[in-house]
Amino acid sequence: ARVSDNEKARIHADIFGDPPSGGDYRDGLIADRDVVAVEAALSEIPPEDRVSQLRAQLAFPFVVSSPVHVRPFLEAEDGDTRKAARRMVRYWEGRERLLGDDAFSPEAFGSRLVTDEDMRRLYYHGIIPTPDPKVNKALRAAVVRKVAPWLSDKINATEREMEALPAKLNSALLDARQRKPDLVNEENIIAFLATEDYDPCRAAKRIASYWDMKSYLFGRDGALCGDEDVHTFAVECSEELEEGSVYLLPGTDSFGRKIMMSRADKTPPKGRNKPYLKVLWFC
Fold first, then answer.
1. What does the pLDDT look like over 213-222, one tens digit per residue?
2. Please, which pLDDT band fits residue 164 given cuts at 50, 70 and 90?
3. Domain residues of the chain, as ranges?
């Protein structure tokens, strides 16, 4: 399955500790870090000392999750996240003094275009908890109100894209959905959307590719099993396992994912690629 450009950049950052040099993806990853750092600094300020800022965040959560809004405060404070957070608090206090409740009306934020990237950040970051459980509950509800319709639209669009795929691409997917519909549910679609930067067209193709490969490796019936038979796998792929062509390393990366290493000098000869692919699949 295709790895998106943003996913490649995030993998690079995870492995090497820094985004690849140059390009929008580096800027986007740095922006992610800046946004989280400023929100963390805001969470250290007692809710009673940032009432206006919290009102803005409840009305439009993107004021703390979107780099477009956060970056000006950081630039004004030379990148100091704590100072940027305090400046943001002062900004909303001043805005409320000038405009009153109108400072937080839908019209006040209506001209600001919300992008898929804004939604992705909001969906993944959620909120950084404050000491006040009631405030946390209200902030989470505000995030859900914004994210839920967007996510629903993405799921529906992916469903339409899957239906529109050529028969040669989605035959295994259609077979799986007809025989066991719950295998491709909303949660499953969201996982694939996340790997493709919430592009429904690419997510649909990735889902179809997943089921095509699973059917190829495990057969039409085996592909429908929720958990493949590890014992059978160990017997069928014993030679590949003994050769050490693939290693599952101890520990995880910073996102909690298992780390796998494949040895290029031990790739299988022609005719033995299926067991090798099964090893990769299980790892």
1. 888 888 877 7
2. very high
3. 5-115, 132-226, 228-283
